[in-house]
Design brief:
- By secondary structure, the protein is α+β, with helices and mostly antiparallel strands.
- It contains ten helices and eight strands.
- The radius of gyration is 40 Å and the shape is elongated.
- The chain starts with a helix and ends with a helix.
Length: 452
Amino acid sequence: MRKLVVTLSFLLPFVGMAQQQKTYSFNLEEAISFALDSNYTAINARRDIAKALKQKWETTATGLPQISADIAYQNNLKQPVTLIPAEITGGEPGTFVPITFGTKQNASATATLNQLIFDGSYLVGLKAARAFLDYSENAAEKTQLEVRKGVINAYGSVLLSEELIAIFEKNKVNLEKNLFETRKIYENGLTEEESVEQLEITLLDIETQLSNVQRTAAIAKQMFNIALGIDVAAQVSFEDTLDSLAENNVQLSFLDASLQVTQNVDYKIAYNLTEQRSLELKLEKSRALPSLSAFVNYGTAANSNDFTFFDREQRWFQSSIFGVNMNIPIFSSGMRTAKTQRAKIALDQAETQLTETVQRIQLAVNSAKSNYQFAIENYKNSKINLSLAERIEGKNQVKFTEGLASSFDLRQAQTQLYTAQQQYIQAMLEVINSKAALETVLNAPQLINSNN
């Protein structure tokens, strides 16, 4: 046994390391599918639907038969004393005799069946439970759309950081080579010290940006892990490239996509609100209607001075009651009228909000299409600008080497190239993100339907 304990204590650290070293590998679509199942917010959204289903049954069950049982036992440690006229027992008139009634101990058991026959609020409650379930499903759909968009943004941000790291490292290597050669030329007295200093400034700037983007990449990966619902320290490899995602997301057909307002999740949620307010109005009106219920019970009781209730000779006396209850609202001093009017005002507000939501959705679609079109145009222009900046920097590199251009001219061309590189990478990410935003407004993925 001792050997087993020692062996386990030796192996446990390695088991923990194996758990910590769990790795993942995703392309973008795989990451989205994984997140829709494991994202923390998505998990709770599904739980909200489960809660709504339970609430729907809870409401339904209030109109179904309800059976309850009551078991009671009493032991009169001091039985109550009652005074009766003494002449009843042959005593002197005007005096009283103390006497106790009943037995010292008694027990009873009763079962009651209650059944609601009619209640207007119950009928409205059934519809309200269904409306709340619809709302929970629509809220889950919105959550899934937001999770999808969040994963796309997070995935792209990681790829952006990795691309920047690669570019800065490449630029750093080139600058270090230029600086080394320029120092040698300076040491031979063939160039000014300023040329070396200009390159040192540029190199220092690149090193600073490289350190910053390396830290940013680590944070971006952690944010991506949270979006997927996995441990922030988990190792993830990314199968897609930023360039391939950008090319795949350039789809001009989306700019011609028509809006089905009723399919937009924000419209669905706003419409749910009007349904709820309408049902609240019906509920207040239903309170003026009578309610009717019935019950039947069956019971048995026994009495004894000693605890003999489990004895075979103990006598039990049966009883049963059937009854009908009707509650008729008559006068409430205007309270029901005020509640009904308040519910009507709330319904009017919800309908106004629905109208505003339709307009806001239309504006959101137009804005998303505009942003997506700009992102595509900017991406194409940034690609051209990068090519031009590379040629300009190359020409200035040759001129500087041959002594035909100053270090200031070279630094300016290099800075222009570095800016064009970053703008191009950022433009690729904007294409991906803007398309995801447009798809979210159009509800193009139809995620709730494909995952139910």
